[in-house]
Design goal:
Length: 291
């Protein structure tokens, strides 16, 4: 399920459920808006929401219930660690935690509701994948066709001191040239709150993990070399390379786990709809909106 579809479905469920609860708890003829002398009642709002997306939202709710029931029957367990891993993946797809939180806020979706939906997705994936058989011949064929992309990328370990302007950057570089401690200066000067407390340590990273100017400089340096100030959209960086990992060629043995998961993901996408339709036939489902 795509990142947008997950949040859209949850948002629609939340809105329709809220209006439905309100319609039951209060008079359906209660006016929720007026345009001149024309009134819009809660009942009209509820009917409009059902007409626009009620059927698809109800289908989604039914599917979630069916999946949860079957997961319980098969004793499928989902841990908080697994849910949080999916959540981190979703954050990455959105471009970070802040972007995901903004999407949730604009849709009126709580994090707890998103986690519940992610749990259902994981349950479904575990059940479908248990029915999929990946042959060794398929894996070898995939490896032969994708050797280059399966190769591990080279990595660099580096620390940096990030400052807002060139003048400060040159001042810090001059202190480093005189032998002052890099980690100490990072804690004193760096505006990168995520790394300054660790002396500017960024750990190991691949070239694509960093902005182009920073990555190009870091990957061109020797271990223990300290750069002149490097300008990026974030300010001026002074980089110290502290380690390097060369890119080994991919072998079938060290790629098997990654290949198997890739093939499982591909087959899951194609087999999930058929699996779900068969699963729904096992349960007594009554959809009163259809009738």
């Amino acid at each position: 399920m795509s990142k947008n579809k997950i949040i859209m479905i949850i948002a629609a469920v939340v809105i329709i459920a809220a209006v439905a609860i309100g319609a039951v708890a209060m008079n359906k003829s209660k006016v929720v808006a007026t345009v001149g002398d024309e009134k819009i009642t809660k009942d009209q709002l509820y009917d409009a929401l059902l007409a626009q997306g009620g059927s698809s939202v109800l289908d989604s709710l039914i599917e979630q219930k069916v999946i949860s029931k079957e997961a319980a029957k098969q004793n499928i367990k989902v841990t908080d660690k697994e849910i949080n891993a999916e959540l981190e993946n979703l954050k990455s797809q959105y471009g970070g935690e802040d972007a995901l939180n903004q999407a949730l806020a604009s849709s009126g979706v709580k994090l707890s509701e998103l986690k519940k939906d992610l749990k259902t997705n994981i349950e479904a994936k575990k059940m479908v994948e248990s029915t999929i058989n990946i042959k060794d011949s398929e894996m070898k064929s995939y490896f032969d066709q994708n050797k280059d992309s399966l190769a591990t990328e080279a990595q660099v370990k580096a620390s940096h001191i990030l400052v807002a302007d060139e003048k400060t950057a040159k001042e810090v570089k001059a202190k480093l040239d005189k032998g002052e401690d890099f980690a100490k200066l990072a804690k004193e000067y760096s505006t990168d709150t995520a790394s300054k407390s660790n002396g500017g340590d960024l750990g190991y990273f691949k070239k694509g993990d960093m902005v182009e100017a920073f990555a190009n400089k870091a990957f061109s340096m020797k271990v223990n070399e300290v750069s002149d100030p490097v300008k990026t959209e974030y300010g001026y960086h002074i980089i110290k390379v502290t380690g390097k990992k060369e890119a080994p060629k991919a072998t079938y043995e060290n790629s098997k786990a990654k290949i198997k998961q890739t093939l499982l993901d591909q087959k899951y996408q194609t087999e999930y709809p058929t699996w779900l339709q068969k699963l729904k036939k096992k349960y007594d489902i009554t959809n009163k909106l259809d009738s």
